[in-house]
Write a structure and sequence with these properties.
- It is a single chain.
- By secondary structure, the protein is of the alpha/beta class.
- The protein has 4 domains: about 5-60, N-terminal domain of TfIIb (Single Sheet), CATH 2.20.25; about 70-135 and about 340-510, Rossmann fold, CATH 3.40.50.740; about 160-335, Dimethylsulfoxide Reductase, domain 2, CATH 3.40.228.10; about 575-685, Barwin-like endoglucanases (Beta Barrel).
- The chain contains 24 helices and 28 strands.
- A 7-stranded mixed β-sheet has the order 5-4-18-17-16-6-7, covered by helices on one side. Strands 23-27-24-26-25-28 form a 6-stranded mixed beta barrel.
- Strand 25 (about 625-630) and strand 26 (about 630-640) form a beta hairpin.
- Helix 3 (about 115-130) crosses helix 21 (about 500-510).
- The longest helix has 19 residues, at about 80-100.
- Bound molecules: iron/sulfur cluster.
- Iron/sulfur cluster binds near residues 19, 20, 42, 46 and 184.
Length: about 675
C-alpha cells in the first residue's frame, strides 16, 4: 500500500496481557495490517498474534450481524430486531428475578473487553439483577493471584513493570510460565536479558523454549510448587541467605513459616518434586544472592486446587530475601488475556466493586448505592465456577455471558454444558457463534476492539487506550449501548454514555483510578498510566510496596504441600497438564480466523514422553484416544521428551479434541480456581 492511502490508528493488542502498542492500518474502512510501535511494554516488538491475528478476524464473514432468538422447540435460531431481542431479554430476566429473587441470576463480563464494557456489565448485574453474582474469566486463570497477593502483600496485582523485570536484572526465577508462547514479547525480552548475562532459573514440568537458555531447569512434577517454594525458603534460612532486616521491619508471620519449612530439606523436596536436591540448592543461591531478581510466574502456579497457597508461596520466597518493593524484583504474575487485569479492577467479581472495594463494607456499599441510586446486596455473590453447579441444582435460573466461551475454556466440559442446559434462560453477547452461544436463548451481536473506543489494563497495571479504527456494515451495536439499553428496559435509568464518560464515572467511585482520564492518557509521554493513580497530579505507580506493603506489613503465609486432587492410578495411569501455544489465543475465536496461523497450528495434539509412547506402541503423529474420569477425546500424538515419563501435555485452544473434556474442576478453597494443571488420564492408540 502507498503510505498516503493508509490511515493509522494507535491501539492496544487484543490478545495477551503484555499490552503491546501498535498501529492498525486502515484502507477504505478496512483493516489491512498492524505495525508495532514504541509502547512502554513492547518497544516496537509484536508477536505473530499481534502482527497477523489482530485484524483479520474483525472482518471475518463469520461475524454475527443481527440479534438471534432461539426457538427452544426446534433448537433453531431466527433473526430478530433489536427491540424484540432486548425486550425479551429484559422481561425474561425481570420475571425470573420476581419469581426466584435476584440471586437466581448471574452475569459474566469478558476479560477481553475494554474496561468500560466490563464496568457496565457488573453495574447492570448489581443494579438491575440485584445480585453480586458477577465474575470474569480471571476466576479460572489468575483469581489465585488476586487472592494470594492481596492476602500476603495487600494488593492482588503484579508488583513491578515489564521493562523493569526484563532489563538489567541479575537473575529471573520463572515459575510455571512459558512466556515465549503465552506472552511472547515478554519472552523475547527475557531471552535478550539472558543473552546479556542475566541468570535464568526455569521451574516447569515441561521443557519450554527458554529451558535451553536456563542456568537451571527444575523439571518438577505438576502440582508440587508449594514443596518447591518451601524447599527454597528452607535453604534461604539454613544457608543464612535471608534478609533479616527486611523481615524484621516489613513483615509478620516469619516464625510460623520458619517452623513449617524446617521439614522441607532439599532431599525431601527433591523426592516430592522429582528434581535434584543440588539443583534446588543452586537455584536458591542464585535467586537469593542476586541483587535484582524478579519472580515471574503464570498459570502453572495458579491453576491448582492449592493455587492461592502456591501464589502465597511466591510471596514467601520474595519477602524472605527482601526482593520486593524495589527495582528489578517483586512477585510478578503474567496475567493471561489482554484485559483480565482490568476485568478484576472493574469489579466483575462477586466480592468486590471496582478497585477491589469490598461489597461487605457498609461504608463502601453506601458509596456505591449513592452513586448508582439503588439498594445493593450486602452478601458476596457466587464465583463463576460455583455458578455452574448452582445452575444444575436449579438455584441459578438466568445467566448473561458477555464475550466468554466457558464451554471451551472451563474444565470438565460435560459439567459446563449440563449447567448451561439446566438454565431457564441464557443470553450471550458475542462476535461469533461460539460453542457457548450455540446453547443460548438469545445471542446479541457486539463489536470488536477495532470498532470501539475504550481502555485495556495490561498485566503491569498499565491503562492504555483502545481506539476505534473502522465501522463495519451490519446490525451489531456497541456493547456498552446494548447494556445501557437493556438496563433501561429493566427499569434502571441508564443513559447511553461514551467510553470516556463511563471511564470517568468508574474513576469517580474508584480511588486507585481517580487520577486517570482519557484526557490525561493522551497527554502522558507513554499515553498510559499504572494504577494506583489517586489524583490528577499522581504520576502512577510503576513499582508497588516501596517502603511499605499495601497491607502494612507483608504476611508470610505458612502452607504445607498437599498433592493434587487427582493423581494417576491403575485405571488412569498418566498425568495430564495443559497450556498455550504461540500461534493461538484461548478458544481461537480470533486467531482461528487467521489463515496463516491455522496453517501452522490447526488442530489439537498431546505430547507424550518417548518411553511412554514406546510402551503404548504409539508413533509420533498417530491418532490416540485420551480418557479421564470426565470424558474422552481423540487427538494427535506428539512424541518427545518435553515432558517427563508418565506426564503428558496438551494445548487448550481447540474445540475439536478439547483437553477440557478431561480436566478436573476441583476448586481451590480461597479463590475457587479449578485444577486445570493436574488430572489423571489414560492414552490408547486408535
Ligand atoms: Fe499481542 Fe501479546 Fe503478542 Fe504483544 S505479545 S503482540 S500483546 S499477543
Amino acid at each position: 500500500y502507498r503510505s498516503w492511502e493508509i490511515q493509522r490508528v494507535r491501539t492496544t493488542c487484543p490478545h495477551c496481557a503484555v499490552g503491546c502498542q501498535y498501529d492498525l492500518l486502515v484502507k477504505d474502512n478496512k483493516l489491512v495490517g498492524a505495525e508495532g510501535v514504541d509502547g512502554p511494554s513492547n518497544g516496537g516488538r509484536l508477536c505473530v498474534k499481534g502482527r497477523f491475528g489482530s485484524y483479520k478476524f474483525v472482518m471475518s464473514g463469520d461475524r454475527l450481524t443481527d440479534p438471534l432468538i432461539k426457538d427452544r422447540a426446534t433448537g433453531k435460531f431466527r433473526k430478530a430486531s433489536w427491540d424484540e431481542a432486548l425486550d425479551l431479554v429484559a422481561s425474561k430476566f425481570m420475571t425470573l428475578k420476581r419469581q426466584y429473587g435476584g440471586d437466581s441470576l448471574a452475569g459474566f463480563a469478558c476479560s477481553r473487553s475494554p474496561n468500560e464494557d466490563i464496568y457496565m456489565v457488573q453495574k447492570m448485574v448489581r443494579t438491575c439483577f440485584g445480585t453480586n453474582n458477577t465474575d470474569n474469566c480471571a476466576r479460572v486463570c489468575h483469581s489465585a493471584s488476586v487472592e494470594g497477593l492481596a492476602r500476603t502483600l495487600g494488593s492482588g496485582a503484579m508488583t513491578n513493570p515489564i521493562y523493569d523485570i526484563t532489563h538489567d536484572v541479575d537473575a529471573i526465577l520463572l515459575v510455571g510460565s512459558n512466556p515465549e508462547e503465552a506472552h511472547p514479547v515478554i519472552g523475547m525480552q527475557i531471552r535478550e536479558a539472558v543473552r546479556n548475562g542475566t541468570k535464568l532459573i526455569v521451574v516447569d514440568p515441561r521443557d519450554i523454549g527458554l529451558t535451553k537458555q536456563a542456568d537451571i531447569h527444575l523439571k518438577l512434577r505438576p502440582g508440587t510448587n508449594i514443596a518447591f517454594a518451601n524447599g527454597m525458603c528452607h535453604i534461604f534460612i539454613k544457608e543464612g541467605l535471608i534478609d533479616e532486616k527486611f523481615i524484621a521491619e516489613h513483615t509478620e508471620g516469619f516464625k510460623e513459616l520458619k517452623k513449617i519449612v524446617k521439614d522441607y530439606t532439599p532431599e525431601y523436596v527433591a523426592e516430592i518434586c522429582g528434581i535434584d536436591a543440588d539443583d534446588l540448592r543452586a537455584a536458591a543461591r542464585i535467586y537469593a544472592t542476586a541483587k535484582k531478581a524478579p519472580i515471574i510466574y503464570c498459570l502453572g502456579v495458579t491453576e491448582h486446587s492449592t493455587g492461592t497457597e502456591g501464589v502465597m508461596s511466591m510471596s514467601n520466597m520474595a519477602m524472605m530475601v527482601g526482593k520486593i518493593g524495589r527495582e528489578g524484583c517483586g512477585v510478578n504474575p503474567l496475567r493471561g488475556q489482554n484485559n483480565v487485569q482490568g476485568a478484576c479492577d472493574m469489579g466483575a467479581s462477586p466480592n468486590q466493586y471496582p478497585g477491589y472495594q469490598s461489597v461487605k463494607d457498609p461504608e463502601i456499599r453506601a458509596k456505591f448505592e449513592k452513586a448508582w441510586g439503588v439498594k445493593l446486596p450486602a452478601h458476596i455473590g457466587l464465583h463463576a465456577t460455583d455458578v455452574f453447579p448452582a445452575a444444575i441444582k436449579g438455584k441459578i435460573k438466568g445467566l448473561y455471558i458477555c464475550g466468554e466461551d466457558p464451554v471451551v475454556t472451563d474444565p470438565d466440559t460435560n459439567h459446563v454444558i449440563n449447567a448451561l442446559k439446566s438454565l431457564d434462560f441464557l443470553v450471550v453477547q458475542e462476535l461469533f457463534m461460539t460453542e457457548t452461544a450455540l446453547l443460548a436463548d438469545v445471542v446479541l451481536p457486539g463489536r470488536s476492539y477495532a470498532e470501539k473506543d475504550g481502555t485495556f489494563s495490561n498485566t503491569e497495571r498499565r491503562v492504555q487506550r483502545v481506539r476505534k479504527a473502522i465501522t463495519l456494515p451490519g446490525n451489531s451495536r456497541l456493547d456498552t449501548d446494548i447494556i445501557c439499553e437493556l438496563m433501561r428496559r429493566m427499569g434502571y435509568n441508564q443513559p447511553n454514555l461514551t467510553a470516556s464518560e463511563i471511564f470517568d464515572e468508574m474513576a469517580s467511585v474508584t480511588p486507585s483510578f481517580r487520577g486517570i482520564s482519557y484526557e490525561r492518557l493522551e497527554k502522558e509521554p507513554t499515553q498510559s498510566l499504572q494504577w494506583p493513580c489517586t489524583d490528577q497530579y499522581h504520576p502512577g505507580t510503576p513499582i508497588m510496596h516501596v517502603g511499605k506493603f499495601a497491607r502494612g506489613l507483608g504476611l508470610f503465609y505458612p502452607t504445607v504441600y498437599t498433592p493434587a486432587k487427582e493423581l494417576p492410578d491403575a485405571q488412569y495411569p498418566m498425568m495430564l497438564t495443559t497450556g498455550r501455544i504461540l500461534y493461538h489465543y484461548n478458544t481461537r475465536a480470533m486467531t482461528g480466523r487467521t489463515e496463516g496461523l491455522m496453517e501452522i497450528a490447526g488442530h489439537s495434539f498431546i505430547e507424550i514422553n518417548s518411553a511412554d509412547a514406546k510402551r503404548l506402541n504409539i508413533e509420533n503423529g498417530e491418532r490416540v484416544r485420551v480418557t479421564s474420569r470426565r470424558g474422552t477425546i481423540t487427538t494427535e500424538a506428539r512424541v518427545s521428551d518435553k515432558t517427563n515419563e508418565g506426564e503428558t501435555w496438551m494445548p487448550f485452544h481447540f474445540a475439536d479434541g478439547n483437553c477440557n473434556w478431561l480436566t478436573n474442576a476441583a476448586l481451590d478453597q480461597f479463590a475457587r480456581i479449578p485444577e486445570y494443571k493436574v488430572c489423571a488420564c489414560r492414552i490408547e492408540k486408535l
